[in-house]
Fold Fumarate hydratase.
Amino acid sequence: MPGDSVDIHVAAKGGGSEAKSKFAMLNPSDSVVDWVMEQLPKMGAGWCPPGMLGIGIGGTAEKAMMIAKEALLDPIDIQDLQARGPSNRAEEIRLELFDKVNKSGIGAQGLGGLTTVLDIKVKDYPTHAANKPVAIIPNCAATRHAHFTLDGSGPASLKAPKLEDWPEITREAGDNVKRVNLDTVTPAEVKTWQPGDTLLLNGKLLTGRDAAHKRMVDMLAKGEPLPVDMRGRFIYYVGPVDPIRDEVVGPAGPTTATRMDKFTRTMLEETGLLGMVGKAERGQAAIDAIRDNEAVYLMAVGGSAYLVAQAIKKSRVVGFEDLGMEAIYEFEVEDMPVTVAVDSQGTSVHQTGPAKWKEIIAQSA
């Protein structure tokens, strides 16, 4: 609009949550709530809950997507809405979905629990009487939002958060935490790990994500040797950000593991790879391959890329340097925290955890 200032609201979203966006053109009489609850299990854990769901209803297809994204910029205020009650249909949908989504048992990182969303945001817009476009865009636990106004008087000043407002981060190994030496770990040791175990990884850890996996599988199909021996080793699905100043690497959080599912059997059977580290659930094809090869899948915490990077003490490129951030790196890690998400028997905590919590929630209702 005309004026002498520019109002800017930025949301630096991660690709994992953006990739889980959903859209449908419903019939006018269809239930938005029912459709959202139908989509939720299909979104998996790759959007890194607990976060927010932005829902856009109405307009055209592109308008519904736009207002769903805009809804995520609004502040978290579901508790205020619960206290005062809804004043329109959009607010009624917010309250209904907030209750139903959290009763789904999906929980933090999809491992099961009471909190799957911190808020539900709904925006609506007039639309054609024959249509009901509906969009869902999730926002992960890392809400990287900035809001400022430029009025020509100089650069905007953004107040930095106080570090004391955050809890102190420690990596102490308690009775239920196991330290693992990646340089000496054996298949027999891997078989003792149980679903849900917390591990602290130490030693040399390879990396590789979409582009590297595609190239490796193509090379294996041609009988060509890989640039690094993966027998008995672990690979971390990550594309590290370039380091600045004295950093070893920049933020290095896990990427969504399901994108590597189609490569998993080939990698396990033809390279001797022992395990993988990523975020979110694995599909059934990958779980079957893990079970058949008595391998393991470990889950790092999504949405906390900077904190994960603090465990990386050395980094060097060992293959496919031309791929940049998608090259194969060798990290030396110290007490990198992960959870056993799929064990060597093929048990997935992303299946057992939410199922258990859904039952607990139903019994307590």
